[in-house]
Amino acid sequence: MEKIGKILFTKEEIEKRIKELGEEISKDYKDKDLVLACILKGAVYFAVDLTRNLSIPFVLDFISILSYGSSRESQGIVRIIKDLDVNIYKKDLLIIEDIVDTGLTLSYLIRNLQAKNPSSIKVCTLLDCPGRRIIDITVDYKGFEIPNYYVIGYGLDYKEKYRNLPYIAVLEEF
PANTHER family, per this entry (predicted)? Predict the structure, then answer.
């Protein structure tokens, strides 16, 4: 049976950081044709709150990826199971991710999306775990950097549970 461990980021800390990210992204994408690509399901909570803090026009779309491997480890074998509905040709694409760890899944996704010829592709993640990185990925906007923990809450799950926690915590004993 899993156990919720130490709280890494409170609801208030998350809200404050997302507000700062919203201001930074709004400034950087002013007068651009921005498409936000939210990666389902983990990034939904982050994407919704981030969009509430943007002061610029944008299009929000969703993409769903299936990663193969155990529930804790991605093997980098991925498949897009729901592609973007909007055309990103010559638009500025910002991928909204919940956590960047190994970089394997995100690397696959970026390569796939580059084939659609957007003007630019950048990455915004709530959590960055560089200690687990296998492939070098540029994270343009990040909420927080974390050590190599398995974390839950604020959209991040363990076996589809704990997404609704308003904070981010370490999962212990699973």
Answer: HYPOXANTHINE PHOSPHORIBOSYLTRANSFERASE, HYPOXANTHINE-GUANINE PHOSPHORIBOSYLTRANSFERASE
Q: Which of 7, 91, 99, 85 is nearest to 57 (CA)?
A: 91
Nearest 10 degrees: CA dihedral of 10, 14, 15, 18?
180
Q: Which of 33, 101, 128, 136 is catalytic?
A: 101
Q: Are strands 34-40 and 92-100 parallel, antiparallel or unpaired?
A: parallel
Choose among 2, 52, 55: nearest CA to 25: 55
Query: Is 101 assigned a catalytic role?
Result: yes
pLDDT tens per residue, the chain (174 residues)? Answer: 789 999 999 999 999 999 999 999 999 999 999 999 999 999 999 999 999 999 999 999 999 998 765 555 555 578 899 999 999 999 999 999 999 999 998 999 999 999 999 999 999 999 999 999 999 999 999 999 999 999 999 999 999 999 999 999 999 977
**CA dist 154 to 27, 43, 54, 61, 139, Å?**
25, 8, 19, 19, 20
| Domain range annotation of the chain | 17-147
Domain 17-147 has CATH 2.60.120.260: no
Both tokens assigned to 16: 């404050």
Helix (H, G, I), strand (E, B) or coil at 96: strand
Distance of alpha carbon 153 from alpha carbon 76, whole angstroms: 23
